[in-house]
Amino acid sequence: MDKEKISAMLTFDKNNKYHRWIRTGIITVLSLIVFVLLWWDISLIVGTAAIPTPWKTWDALVDLFTYGDLVSGYTMWNHIWVSLKRFLLGLLISLLVAVPIGLLLGYSPTLKEFSTPALELLRPIAPIAWAPIFLFAIGYTWGPIMVVFVGIFFPLLTNTIFGVQKIDPHLVDAARTLGASKVQVFFKIMFPCAIPYVMNGVRIGSGIGWMCIVASELYAASGGGIGYFVGLQASLGFWPNVYAGIFVIAILGILTTSLFDYIYKIITKRMGME
Fold first, then answer.
1. Which CATH architecture describes the domain 52-270?
2. Which of 175, 214, 216, 273 would be 180's cystine partner, CB 3.0–4.6 Å?
3. What is the mean pLDDT of residues 96-116?
């Protein structure tokens, strides 16, 4: 193999997807190595039990997945499943409530004008502020779910309204000219065209949803959960377990947001929005 071929192989081509994947992989690995080394150095310099080394955290993580937590009686798999169910239920309720309301408000300027004052009054309130109310009003099972619902609701509602308002009015006029009723325009034009914006709301809201579920479980929860686990371990001073729980939260958040981001890209590509 001559030098020109070797040089061509080693030269980064931004239009080559395999080159981009390799570059992203290398940068990711290097970034994580630097992060672990910094974490290790800080742990050794500070010298407090509240900042365990990465290796102690890793050992705790392996033990939690293998043997479980003796204090709560659950394995890490149990905690993940409980939090994941709460997150998905909160997301589902948000979809069932926010999307229809967003479609209606985007479709009707009068309804949007009427509802805007109340929505703007509620929107700036941090979702976690509702946690004590939901937990004590509807219980420790549904309370965290409703906190997730509130966290995802507003990004989803805002994006749905924006999606309807971005629809080309000429498309609506053409449908009406061909005899389409208001109901047909709503379901055959408004809703399909708003789907990419709905998915963008889900993508944004999912990250907020994970913060909400963990924070609400820190208050109180029944049946376990990642936030419950982290709060319990912190109260007992089992800091490697605490960091193991935080690591699991990060991975779950990355996986769910990446999944919704992937779905969003597929939908926008198929609808010619890229």
1. Orthogonal Bundle (1.10)
2. 175
3. 89
